[in-house]
């Protein structure tokens, strides 16, 4: 990957939007890895293989010529399977005919959800630290982020924190549970608080549940299942993380028929459809039994419990995640700011992490923290641990 310059050009005149959108620091930190030959604990992607049955199903779908555009709303059998999953795991009854749209990853899902709801100048509440994409996603629709900063170790949300933002006037709130980068899992009490305020102040919710099965001590609750939220919530979800297929670009959006009709129109003109053969293959994933999901969470819990204590022992100040596959840690013991800390770590320890600044308000005093991704083979984590042990002694 090469960095693209947006310096003023005598030839090209870019949109304001293009100038507003900065390069992703998450993807950029992968470049450190190439430069220094570091182990990539930066970008949120597993380095182990996808389930064999899925690869086989994808090969079979391509071989049997399921290679043309799919139904724009998503292959109907896949939509039916998603509806069944939502009934079984989220206790929400969904009509697959009118309420589900299969799209190109949760990334497209978030963008179409925002395009459906947000006009220029609409305020959208996000909780900091947040997933990096939310800011550029909002910039593309002209939405204005309203930030609430959460604090470790609980990252808890209270009514006092929420009220000023709701009183100011919001069009929507984005909830990410389990959350990237903090691993926060929203509790029922917190979700009920959001539900109460969304109804009182007439606010929509977009809920990004991409890590719903990567969960440790707490249970995952979908905001849409909370009283009064059924028709004012857009659920964004996907297959990338649960089935270890981030490259397939498959996700889905669930919303009431009225919202879904608009989501579908926008989605159709952006991508027409998600990749057809991979939708057929994803049906195989939806048929995996309960054991698959239990093993997934157990495996990630084991990896978390392998990596987290080492960070503690070396004198970092990590926060134990309750879900997702990241560890957030203070990095002020390494350098004066997060970018320098990430650079030092990649160069000296040959381990790449993402600087916490990209998960934070752009104008706020710089956050000095790092995010490590532990969705890696045990051997990768062990090599990273050995490297860290050689140069990191902060305690
Ligand atoms: N939401 C969050 C919170 C994520 O961490 C990611 C991936 N890093 C996405 C959405 C994007 O998922 P997808 O691969 O389905 O586009």
CATH superfamily of the largest domain: Type I PLP-dependent aspartate aminotransferase-like (Major domain)
- Give the ordered list of helices and strands: HHEHHEHEHEHEHEEEHHHEEHEEEH
Derived from helix and strand composition plus strand pairing, the structural class reads alpha/beta
Under the CATH scheme, which architecture of the largest domain would be assigned? 3-Layer(aba) Sandwich
Tell me the count of domains.
Answer: 2
Q: Could you tell me which ligands this complex binds, including any ions or cofactors?
A: 4'-deoxy-4'-aminopyridoxal-5'-phosphate
Total helical elements: 13
Strand content: 5-15%
User: How far apart are the first and last residues' alpha carbons, in Å?
Assistant: 36 Å
């Amino acid at each position: 990957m090469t960095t693209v310059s947006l310096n003023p050009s005598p030839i090209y005149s870019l949109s304001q939007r293009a100038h507003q959108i900065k390069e992703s620091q998450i993807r950029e930190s992968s470049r450190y890895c190439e430069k220094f030959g570091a182990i990539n604990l930066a970008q949120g992607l597993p380095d182990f293989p996808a389930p064999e049955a899925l690869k086989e199903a994808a090969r079979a779908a391509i071989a049997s010529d399921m290679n043309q555009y799919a139904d724009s709303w998503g292959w109907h059998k896949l939509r039916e399977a998603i509806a069944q999953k939502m009934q079984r795991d989220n206790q929400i009854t969904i009509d697959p005919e009118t309420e589900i749209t299969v799209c190109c990853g949760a990334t497209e899902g978030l963008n179409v959800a925002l395009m459906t709801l947000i006009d220029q100048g609409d305020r959208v509440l996000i909780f900091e630290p947040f997933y990096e994409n939310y800011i550029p996603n909002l910039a593309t629709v002209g939405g204005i982020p309203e930030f609430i900063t959460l604090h470790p170790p609980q990252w808890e949300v209270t009514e006092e924190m929420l009220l000023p933002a709701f009183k100011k006037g919001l069009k929507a709130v984005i909830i990410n549970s389990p959350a990237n980068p903090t691993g926060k899992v929203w509790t029922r009490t917190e979700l009920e608080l959001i539900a109460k305020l969304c109804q009182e102040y007439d606010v929509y919710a977009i809920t990004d549940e991409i890590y719903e099965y990567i969960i440790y001590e707490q249970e995952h609750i979908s905001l849409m299942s909370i009283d009064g939220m059924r028709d004012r919530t857009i659920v964004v979800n996907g297959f990338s993380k649960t089935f270890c297929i981030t490259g397939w670009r498959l996700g889905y959006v669930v919303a009431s028929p009225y919202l879904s009709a608009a989501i579908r129109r926008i989605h159709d003109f952006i991508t027409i459809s998600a990749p057809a053969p991979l939708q057929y293959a994803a049906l195989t994933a939806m048929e995996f039994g309960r054991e698959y999901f239990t093993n997934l969470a157990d495996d990630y819990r084991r990896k978390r419990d392998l990596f987290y204590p080492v960070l503690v022992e070396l004198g970092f100040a990590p926060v134990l995640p309750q879900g997702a596959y990241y560890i957030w840690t203070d990095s002020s013991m390494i350098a004066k700011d997060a970018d320098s800390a990430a650079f030092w770590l990649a160069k000296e320890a040959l381990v790449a992490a993402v600087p916490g600044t990209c998960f934070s308000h752009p104008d706020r005093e710089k956050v000095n923290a790092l995010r490590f991704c532990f969705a890696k083979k045990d051997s990768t984590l062990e090599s990273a641990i050995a490297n860290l042990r050689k140069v990191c002694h902060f305690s």
